[in-house]
Amino acid sequence: MRNSSLLRASMPLFGLLLFILSTTTDARNLRSKIRPSFNPVRRETPADIFTTSPLTSPSTSHFAPTVRAPKDNIWAPLSHEEATSVVEYLHRHFNLTHAEDAGPWDNAVSVVDLVPPNKTEALSYLDGDGPIPLRWAKASISFGATETPYLQDFAVGPLPLTKNATHWSLDYLTTSGTNRMKNSKADASTVLEFLQNATISIGDITQDLLGYAVKAEDAYPELVTWTQNPPLFEMKAGSHGTEERRTIHWASIFKPFSTSRYPFDVATISPQGIFLKVDVTGRDPSKWTVDGWVYNDKYYNSTESFRQAWKHPNFQKVAHRNTVGNWASTDPAGKPFKYDERVRPLTVYPEGKRYAVDFERKYVEWGAFSFYLGFTRDAGLQLFDIRYNGERIIYHIGLQEAVAQYAGEDPFMSNLAYLDSFFGLGSNTMELVDGYDCPHGSTYLDSSVHEDGVSRTYPRSICVFEQDGHLPLQRHTTGRYVEVTKNIQLVVRAVSTVSNYDYTWTYIFSMDGSIEVKVSASGYIFAAFYAHNEEYGYRIREGLSGSMHDHVLNFKVDIDVHGTKNTFAKHAAVAVNQSYPWSIQPRSTMKLDKTWILNEDEGKLEWPGNGQTQYLVLNKDQTNPYGEHPGYRIMPGQGGGGHHLSSPRSETLQNSVGFAREHLYVTKAKDGEVWSSHPWNLLDPARPVVDFGEYLDGESLEQEDLVLWVNLGMTHIPHTGDLPTTVQTTSQSSFLLLPHNYLPRDPSRRTRQQVRISYGAWLNGSTLVERFGQHEVRGAAFPLREAVGDLEGYGGKVVRLLEES
């Protein structure tokens, strides 16, 4: 679970959390090794430290043909050697502590990533004889050795570093004018102790109401307490008569149910219905206060008032408790489906792969498509320089931010919201499960992140494979013949597990020139204790409510149609009463109404109702042979397509989600407007580093370099079918990009994966099958074991210290 105290990775949360809380000494020792720049407790499986090179090779079986990328991958993540040189440089120029030795009161490097090259320089290199863009690192430093800890990004370079290397603050990539952000989570591990001590102080109350009490000496306490995200800020009267901005959190008590025989990650479905409000302003825990408690929808303004009310004979207790048990296990339960034990359908490549990969440069070719892969700590998998028939159609497409915003009767759920780039959608990417996440035989690539003093390589965390879409791409039947075309697609996929949710990111390329971008979600819901919250979700167990929430996933789509100068158009089918010279009466019909989106004020768009309007990126300076402007269309796909926040003016997320209030935005591309969000926005949503709303300043969009910012997602109102975990059949959303008057005809006619069967009297009752030159597999025996794979080597990640030479 993502929360202000815990940064999720992969190991069961409470095993690590309970260790932290077991003794003050242990907690202090652990804090000395924690990076204060992000949440201090990191849920991850311990990994050995390797001194060998990170994995860069493909899967050991089912190799794809290799190809040499035409240019270097200028978006490739930093290598271990590059990241190490940056850390060493920063230690020479700042007063820093090595990350593995740093505590909350130290300065240390937290993240080292790539500063994306400016597009103008990138295109000069990609399309002509321009020099390769200089490579710069983005280094995030946590400055903890101060009463007001803060975070700041620096550009360091150019790489490789020489005696002339330099650094400067990356302020130009912000809207606030500075990327220095106060780190309201620098002392998060100390806040954990403070919360647990508050829970200990009401042990007599929790024993009565919940059946459990926490004692200071407990190595594995029965109850744990953590805060919501993001921090809240309230203005209160200060000691000198002036108002002060105070850092406030609401916290909730949870009952973990985890043993060595029951390892399931059920923390977020174990709320107990007791909430406390804490003021943790400043860095001195002795000045922190517990400002109130909530139980059974009643607020008590102090611990003493809560205790006095509890002692009163008329105190009303909730009639039920929330107990997590075997029902929350994801292991098989119940009677198996008929024939379920039989071998499932499998994917095979009878003649090998039909796509080519440059593993060193992370470059892929399939059919008429080619593209490069990039990867960042904040947003994970990104695609660049997507070309069709050798011509660029998309410069960049990739996730920007993942928002989750909850609603509820209690103060914890009502204030709960996440911006997952803070936790790292890239650093929470793990090895894919062969044969389940991706078909066995897929091509796997590694990804890497440099964070908290180590390089983490995630082997086999990106997969590439072909799939049969299982619905013909094209077909037609007559009395003389039937013709059908296979819908073969190329898929690129990765998975980010951020807290309780697993997000599957899928890019699907089709032979008709279209691209689908899809997100699917699974995992344990973040549920509420059931009490007085019927208007915020369904009751799904005795003491559990499926708390309603929004997911908004923002993507950047930089489309280039025959160059960078394009215009956004709306072509709508509109109802009209039209007179015709051949008709006595006017007829009710429809016409095509063509309009242009000429500035950014007009570029705030919702998907039109009834699918009557087409949104298009067109090149007005060019026409096809028939006088039409070529372009690409964007349209909603599965799950209803677009989504925005149901409550777009959230008091919780405030100015940090300007991109999440409409389905789609169109802006003019600028080198300083690279991301729609920033990971530090979660630290102070009212004063974000990047406020997307400031991008929308009315600039002209006519024949400019356009960027689309597209939202996917869903409003999730969990029901009993979301237990134990949400399934991905309904929890998914996508959008499509399709060629529009861009090609002379359907390009899928190039495929040989089609058949025409002629039949009927004109053939004297015989049948003629035309396979157009596709190879046939006849009489070949295929070892099924080759299509299933071996999961025994699954490992997760490889970790190397950045200070290693």
From TrEMBL:
Domain Copper amine oxidase catalytic: 347-748
E.C. numbers: 1.4.3.-
Any GO molecular function: copper ion binding
InterPro entries, per database record: Cu_Am_ox_TPQ-bd, Cu_amine_oxidase, Cu_amine_oxidase_C, Cu_amine_oxidase_C_sf, Cu_amine_oxidase_N-reg, Cu_amine_oxidase_N2, DUF1965
Positions annotated as active site in the UniProt record: D420 (proton acceptor), Y501 (schiff-base intermediate with substrate)
GO biological process: amine metabolic process
PROSITE patterns noted in UniProt: COPPER_AMINE_OXID_1 (PS01164)
Cofactor (UniProt): Cu cation
GO cellular component, one term: plasma membrane
Coiled-coil regions, chain positions: none
Key words, A-Z: Copper, Metal-binding, Oxidoreductase, TPQ
Record domain DUF1965: where: 267-334
One Pfam family in the UniProt entry: Cu_amine_oxidN2
Domain annotation Copper amine oxidase N2-terminal: ranges: 97-161
Processing and modification events after translation: Topaquinone (TPQ) is generated by copper-dependent autoxidation of a specific tyrosyl residue.
SUPFAM superfamilies assigned: Amine oxidase catalytic domain, Amine oxidase N-terminal region
Free-text comment on the cofactor: Contains 1 topaquinone per subunit.
Sites of 2',4',5'-topaquinone modification: Y501
Family: Belongs to the copper/topaquinone oxidase family.
Protein name: Amine oxidase
Taxonomic source organism: Tilletia indica
Organism phylogeny: Eukaryota, Fungi, Dikarya, Basidiomycota, Ustilaginomycotina
